[in-house]
Write a structure and sequence with these properties.
mainly alpha
Length: 171
């Protein structure tokens, strides 16, 4: 624990650690959702989308590392058992029962939008009170917004491809 880290945080550190542990659980679930979804995914544009989802998975793992380090700096204990992830996470893990690429992307989009809310909440809670956590939350928030944009672009491309195929059928 960093005594100065706790001292300079002008907020309820216990509440912040709870928020960070929820974020940690969500990052692990997001990592797995991206990783397994990329592996089982089927359908059009799979070869273009799979590497991007695996990159997102790696970035989610990096977020987990940032969050766990901050929890420890603040004198907290990170979630130690994976069986506790679902108990702490507010963002749902969606099992990729439908491997169609569009279904996988929509599941990941839901997860990203939840993560955006999570880090926006952490940023608002720490703004002007805990600059280190605030900066971390803003950095991760930026990544999550980029992920949302990437997924929306893929979904738009799939919709456009569908529309183009329908036009060809009609001609």
């Amino acid at each position: 624990m960093g005594k100065k880290a706790v001292e300079i945080a002008n907020l309820d550190v216990g509440k912040l650690i709870e928020m960070l542990n929820a974020a940690l659980a969500e990052e692990w679930l997001a990592y797995y959702q991206y990783w397994i979804g990329a592996r089982v995914m089927e359908g059009p544009m799979r070869s273009e989308i799979e590497p991007e989802l695996l990159l997102h998975a790696t970035e989610e793992l990096g977020h987990a590392e940032l969050v766990v380090n901050r929890i420890i700096q603040l004198g907290g204990t990170p979630i130690l058992n994976p069986s506790d992830w679902l108990k702490h996470a507010e963002c749902a893990y969606e099992t990729p029962n439908d491997p169609y690429v569009e279904a996988i992307l929509k599941q990941n989009l839901t997860g990203e939008r939840c993560a955006i809310q999570r880090y926006e909440g952490i940023a608002r809670y720490t703004s002007g009170k805990d600059l280190v956590t605030y900066e971390m939350a803003i950095t991760i928030l930026n990544d999550e917004l980029e992920h949302e944009h990437d997924i929306e672009d893929f979904l738009n491309d799939i919709n456009r491809m569908r529309e183009d195929l329908l036009k060809l059928k009609m001609d």
